[in-house]
Amino acid sequence: MSHLSRLRGRWSLPIVLVVLALVGGTVLWTRSEDAPPPVSTRDAVIDVPESPGSSQTIQIDTTLYLPVQTPAPAILLPHGFGGSKTSVSAQATELAQRGFVVLAYSARGFGRSTGKISLNAPDREVADARKLLDWLATREEVQTDGPGDPKVGVTGGSYGGSLSLLLAAADPRVDTLAPVITYNDLSQALLPNAGATGSPTATTPAAGSFGDDGVFKRSWAGIFFSAGLSGSDSASPGREAAEPGQEDDAAGNAVADASAAATSQGQGQGQGRQQGGTQAAPDACGRFTAEVCAAYTEVATTGKASPATVKLLRDVSPVSYNSGIKQPTLIVQGEQDTLFGLDQADANARQISANGAKVKVVWYAGGHDGGSPGAGLRGEIADWMAFHLQGKGTDPGTGFEYSVQGAFRTNGTTSVRTVSAAGYPGLTGKDATSRTSLPLKGREQVVVNPAGGNPAAVSSLPGFGSVLSGSSSLSSRLSIDLPGQAALFSSDQLTSQVLVAGSPTVRLRVAAVPGQPVPADGTVLFVKLYDADANGARTLPGAAVAPVRIGSLPADGTPVDVTVTLAGVVRPIESNHRVQLVVATTDQAYANTGAPAAYRVALADENIQLPTVAGTNTTTGLATTALWGIGIVLLAFVAIGVVAAFRRRLAADVDPELTSVPLVIENLTKSYPGKLTAVKDLSFRVEHGQVLGLLGPNGAGKTTTLRMLMGLIHPTEGGIRVFGHKVTPGAPVLSRIGSFVEGAGFLPHLSGTANLRLYWAATGRPVEQAHFEEALEIAGLGNAVDRKVRTYSQGMRQRLAIAQAMLGLPDLLVLDEPTNGLDPPQIHQMRDVLRRYAAAGRTVLVSSHLLAEVEQTCSHVVVMHKGKLVAAGLVEDIAQGGGEATFKVGDPMRAATVLRAIDGVHDVHVDGELVHAGLNGTPRSEALTELVKAGVTVDQAGPRRRLEDAFLELVGEGTSA
């Protein structure tokens, strides 16, 4: 031990100096970046013409978000369908904090704006936006390029994304744009046809077929039409009803849009609001114009669109105007989107690039079914605006990024990585998309379309994908193909991974069954691509389906060959998995063929073509500053060297009877000079699968106990054993503990991912043991893990620290106040994470002052007071104390008499309609039986106290103390 002491003494001063320097710099840097810049707002109602040449006006409700320094470039921020300016308030605030003047507004027919919805008609909604640019040009806070010309960008999601494209095409004053999860051709988005008789010619990865006479996307269209029906004027002045879950949503979720619109959107009817607070009588068209209402009625009742309806939809779609866009464009599209698929973004990219415009494309792991862009992607949009409007930062370029979701995890999420390529393949006619040819097997099969198209297969849950565990992974596993209605073709097991990125293509041969009826309006089929693992479990990537209308088949059974362009997806299909192609006759999300029919389906070409896009995984460099890099490397080497030396010199101290027990603390005492004893004679034991809460008031000795457990300080007496090994500084068994005690010292100039990798490298353990993917999922930071930590909020740092503690999936996890800085939804998520972690056979020790949270999270509890153990056991046992119970009854006095007559029951007293009693071991059911026998009505019966009540009494602050 003398040699060990000399070793510690030799290294302690240099280590302390280095750590103090690094941590001190971290604290100073972090604190300087904590508080976001303040943002002020100004509300305004702007009059615009109701229609071209009209003398009547409607009112557009706006909010102007102002940064600290003005004048500044402006960003126009429209909202998603069914939303209002409130839906984008959080993103508007973020952009204003980045130094932009942001104008958020409610489009006509939404929020508190009046007028009728025309689906972004150029002479209505687009004209409104141009008027808003006129207004911005008059504001002294807005930087201008010339008289009447504001320096302005526009971004928005879904309906707002379409507006950004249409406005940029119509008004050259727009300097740059970033449309998010929007459409190119609304007629193709709502009535797609993925079949074609020829071969595909597009060289881009997700080019759709865009055939005529498509299949009506009934569920999604119905959701959107419902969102425009409400005519309620219930919104109070200055406040709109925000869609649930959309406060941060630049794109919008259609189901939330619809529900919000149906409850309290506060819309005007006709040309304006009714006077005197009265409400206009609703009609079948709600807030839609008569033309839009008639078009929806037609397709909803017939399942098909007339040429006039197709023209109306194309006339309000970017496809008709993209030739006018010359501005730099960032196109962001979701990979989990059964409404506006990757094919819509692909078409926008091709059309805008053909004008010579600068185009960058980003696919992210979300969408209408998978969630709106996270903070990281919103930051990327802001970076795009900063470069093109302010000249700040590096040029974002014209690259291509897509997200790859990995394995499905037990906590309901998936791992995600980003792949970056130099450009979007095929935009310039060069570097066409690579395709992997994969053979499929399967004989010709007969499939039946039932009368009425019912029952129908289930492939997606339109609008609800993002609700399922915060991930579309679950919804992609809910696909159901009905027997007799689906043909199946399968590949052999793959020998290596294939990363599908885009729209696969396959050639099918379809024929009518002779003697069976042939539908007059054509044959409708639904084609989808499954990923089937070695056990046969199937996943439908993105819940994506490709509807095909072939036309009327020859009644004599002559086959027709058709090339099907499947829905665009991103999916790593692993080795030992199979690709399965399913051709079905029905799908509940679409308008199915009502006439009964039977078809023969076969492969016209046995190979399916899978698009692939080569790229590199996006990572953040570990040493962006030479000085920090040198210091980090030195610190890592010092730490590794000291730990290695300690391990060589520490004698093994193992109790073989406790090697399977995660934690045993025996007679633990820690005293300091001055007769201060922080912990005295503390003993308790923690078993596998437990989530144990360590409770106590300030000064109870909790943190001191945890620091001794981590080997940071020496106990004065007693000891701690982890899996039978005695805990000492540098003990190898500490590698089986993951801890977060007294905060984490992250390096602010590095990203969250880089900090985690640096921490793990310092442990000297193999990188394959780190389980970075699982830890990052637990952090729940999305793309923010690639941002510098100095931009993180306190809650984000807290989640990153917990992820760091979980690196390597330690057998014992020790967390000190893990929910500090987390909001209620994050606390709820953390509670579930800890339970799942313990349920996997591991053990969790949580020190917390949130008694209600411990009661809901922990299975066991240890209560400390003044350094001593005052109680230990199951949470419910501690909370119930000596068996006190409370009964809510109809006749309290009668109930009290009955309870007092039961042997052993004591301390009975009445508190209003409640009767409290100490049961003293008498089962609560027996007391309840006696009350019922006596004719006393019992409404509720349960333990009298919560954990908080027991805690206060145990530490001497309860009413009975």
Radius of gyration: 32 Å
The major beta sheet can be summarized as:
11 strands, mixed
Number of strands: 41
Overall domain count: 4
Please give the CATH architecture of the largest domain: 3-Layer(aba) Sandwich
Helix content: 25-40%
Number of helices: 22
Distance between the termini: 48 Å
Summarize the structure in short.
The protein is of the alpha+beta class and 961 residues long. 27% of the residues lie in helices and 25% in strands. Residues 251-266 have a biased composition (Low complexity).
How would you portray this structure in words?
The chain is of the alpha+beta class. The chain folds into four domains: 41-396, 3-Layer(aba) Sandwich (Rossmann fold); 434-616, Galactose-binding domain-like (Jelly Rolls); 650-874, P-loop containing nucleotide triphosphate hydrolases (Rossmann fold); 882-944, Alpha-Beta Plaits. It is 27% helix and 25% strand. It contains 22 helices and 41 strands. The strands form nine sheets. It has an eleven-stranded mixed β-sheet with strand order 1-2-4-3-7-8-10-11-12-13-27, sandwiched between helices. A hairpin with a 2-residue loop joins strand 36 and strand 37. Helix 3 (125-137) packs across helix 4, helix 6 runs parallel beside helix 7 and helix 12 packs parallel to helix 14. The two termini are 48 Å apart. The model is unreliable at 1-33, 231-281, 408-413, 465-475, 619-634 and 646-651 (pLDDT under 50).
